[in-house]
Specification:
The protein contains six helices and no strands. It is mainly alpha-helical and 192 residues long.
Amino acid sequence: MENSTLFIGLFNFILIAILPKIFFRSDGEFNLKWFVTGSPYFFAPLLLILAKLGVLPKALDYHDFLNFPLDVLGVALFAGSFALMGMTLGTHRVPLALWHQENDAPKSIVTYGAYAKFRHPFYTSFLMSLIATLLIAPGPLTLLNLVWGFVVMNTTAAREEKRLSESEFGSEYQEYMTKTGRFFPKWDGFGG
C-alpha cells in the first residue's frame, strides 16, 4: 500500500467521522446502537494503518503485480465514496437525525439527487469505503469488518424503511422503494 493510498483512505474515514458534527441534527444521541452501527467505520482506519505497518495477517500472499491494481481499485472506490457523500450532502435542505433514531419522525421524504438511484446513498458510500479497505488491505479482519458493516447498515436501513413506510408518507415511500435499490441502483428488477 502506497502512502498516498493510505492518506486517501484515512481522509475518507475522517469525513465519515465528522459527518455527525457538520451535517446531522444536533438533537440525536450517540447511544450504544449508534456506536455499534458506526463501529466498522471506527475500525477500518485502524485496519488500514495496521496493514501499512505489516501487522495485519493477509488472507492471501498477493504478489506485487496484484498490489497496484487492488490499490487503484480501492482508491477509485474511495473517490466514489467521496463523490456520493458530497452528492448526498448537496441533496438535502435540512440535516437528518443520526441514523434516524427513535425520536425522529420524518418531515418529508427525499427522492431526488442521490436518492433517485439509492434509498440510502450515505450508507452506500460508507459501504464503498469498507470495500475499498478490503481491496487495499485484503485479509480476514478487513473481510469481517466489511461483513459486519453490511449487516449493521442493512439492519439500520430496514428499520428506517419500516418507519418511513408506516409514516404519513408511507404510500409515497413504498412506491419509491419499488423504483430504487437500497444500496445499489435498480436495473430491470435488480438492486432491491
